[in-house]
Amino acid sequence: MFLGISAVVAFAAPGATATAYTLIAVTAFAMGLRNATVRKLGVPDLTTTVLTMTLTGLAADSRAGGGPGTRSPRRTASVVAMVAGAGIGAWLVLHHGLGIPLAVAAGLVALLAVTASGRE
Fold it and tell me: Does the keyword Membrane belong to this entry (predicted)?
């Protein structure tokens, strides 16, 4: 919902200084809610905002690092998804402004929420 609001704000007043600060505040709030939700759901070994923690866990628990390597597929998929999302997001921002990437993110979050709801 907050990413959708951010997309609307970005389309309504592109380039305004107040728009940038509003987008920073609203998306920060959305990320905080997402992080709190993931903590509440108890998804093991998967942080949503700290890529370095995921990479550290991947290295420390890998067979090369002396660990069992059992959670490597999930962590690797997480890193690949973050890198791909960052690349696509950066390209969209550079070529299309802030509105489209925020709208795409809001749509993907909504799709994932509907898909994952009730899977507990």
Answer: yes
